[in-house]
Amino acid sequence: MSADDVTPIPLLASSIRLKAIPQAVAAARLFVRHNFMLWDLEEHIETATLIMSELATNAVRASNESNPQTTDELVIGGQLRAIESSLFVEVWDRTSTTPVRKDPDQDAEGGRGLLLVDAVAKQWNIYHPSAGGKIVWAELPLGFALEPSNCVYEHVPLLLPQGLRARYSSAEHQARRALLDSLLSTTLSANTMMRMTDAT
Fold first, then answer.
1. What pLDDT, in 10s, does the model give residues 140-197?
2. Exposed, middle or buried, 154 (CB in 10 Å: 0-12/13-18/19+)?
3. Which of 11, 17, 47, 134 has the largest CB neighbor count within 10 A?
4. Is 48 in contact with 35 (CB distance < 8 Å)?
5. Domains, the chain, ordered by start
6. Any bridge partners for residue 93, and if so which?
């Protein structure tokens, strides 16, 4: 098999690593808006931003509850992917604690995050990458099949206030590896499914 025999999978992907502090949630929302504008997917910004906000909030909370003494080493990772006919919003944190969907009372001030994600996403789940920690992901229908021509865009860096991006450290490296693991796993699965469909 040569490189000419391989059909590339149409894929848009971007990731970010942030300090696990409350301000990271706003930065994660900005990350969604920035990339979806570049990818011409503006019609999905509001839903994806809501999902990212909820997942990032949970990741920041889980990170700080698990190890409140080492705030410099606390990192969350966010990743956006458009592949085939779906959008994925993913958030990594270093803990393996599974988030639980709650059914709060009407008077409760919190606890509705995963209920909201469940209501607007096609599906959501948890992925445990080989690098450790967990990725909570949610899938949204794109509404059309992604074509290679949709995947050409100019890279424009996202400018964030100082102190929000995670500094290079073992935690940042772990987040980077975990998100790449998820990206490769999903792309390989899509590639396999595409080949099986083409073979039939």
1. 999 998 888 888 888 899 999 999 999 999 999 999 999 999 998 877 776 666 566 5
2. exposed
3. 17
4. no
5. 3-199 (3.30.565.10)
6. 76, 134
